[in-house]
């Protein structure tokens, strides 16, 4: 039983990779954090992609503190 859970996780993620590939997310390198996030979320969503889930990351601005002058 303990070997079943990791196997299911691997299969789940592999289905997500296939879904991302079918959406041509791997045709070019991600250009920003939004495209990287979309790829990651698509992979994590796994089989849910085939039930109409279309995860997208619209924007991901990270406010990094700037050094004072």
What's this entry about, in short?
Helix content is 46%, strand content 0%. By secondary structure, it is an all-alpha fold.
Describe this structure in words.
- The termini are far apart.
- Helix 1 (4-22) packs across helix 2.
- The chain is extended, with a radius of gyration of 16 Å.
- The protein contains two helices and no strands.
- The model has no long low-confidence stretch (mean pLDDT 84).
- By secondary structure, the chain is an all-alpha fold.
**Mean pLDDT over the full residue set:** 84
Structural class by SSE content: mainly alpha
Estimated radius of gyration: 16 Å
Shape: extended
**Percent of residues in β-strands:** under 5%
| SSE order | HH
Task: Outline the secondary-structure elements.
Elements: H1 4-22, H2 33-45
Helix pairs in contact: 1-2
């Amino acid at each position: 039983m303990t070997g079943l859970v990791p196997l299911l996780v691997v299969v789940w993620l592999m289905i997500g990779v296939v879904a991302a590939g079918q959406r041509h997310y791997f045709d070019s390198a991600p250009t920003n954090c939004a495209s990287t996030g979309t790829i990651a979320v698509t992979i994590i969503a796994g089989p849910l992609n085939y039930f109409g889930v279309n995860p997208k990351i619209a924007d991901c601005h990270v406010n990094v503190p700037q050094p004072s002058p």
